[in-house]
């Protein structure tokens, strides 16, 4: 007799892998691909001590489900075939280990994020969208080159704490959430918020939203809303890329 619960988890695994591929392609679509830099991960629902990621060096815009590799907590590939980005492993494994509720995490060297990360500041509540990160992100001040050891990753995860986003000084930004959908949307949205604040800074004027209103608006930017926003982009990338739509689990 088949196990309905196991079948549900297998379907969930297929959905997560498809959305991970869509997420990489969205990053390429929005210009977040820069050589081999950047990585997105999703926790495997069948073995939650492992996560899926694209092979190191694969162009984001060409990633397929068949390309994905599953990596364990030691950095070993346990399913699939391909090289693993060591920085991706050390950062994402630290976050997934420190926060069992996190299913998705995203990082790339987006233009406005890495520019903003060169400034000694966090995002201010200048727009309704930026309020999504008000009191929900911080800044990791250390910059010690490429993340090539777990200790570095652990320090990043500790600084991030329970936040949904982290600015990595002179590097870029990182997002994490209870779903891949929310993590990817927050990454995309935060990049646009960096762009918006940089434009405001260029004018020399700003009118921040007061604390009470900013805190209220932050509470309205829920995980569910982030997932809804991602769903619109998910449908968009599938409409633009028929091969992706054809591989959607049903």
From TrEMBL:
Domain Class II aldolase/adducin N-terminal: 18-198
Pfam families per the UniProt record, alphabetical: Aldolase_II (PF00596)
Entry-linked InterPro entries: Aldolase-II_Adducin_sf (IPR051017), Aldolase_II/adducin_N (IPR001303), Aldolase_II/adducin_N_sf (IPR036409)
Gene Ontology CC entries for this record: cytoskeleton
SMART domains, sorted: Aldolase_II
Signal peptide: none
SUPFAM superfamilies in the record: AraD/HMP-PK domain-like
GO terms, molecular function: actin filament binding
Assigned protein family: Belongs to the aldolase class II family.
Protein name, as recorded: Class II aldolase/adducin family protein
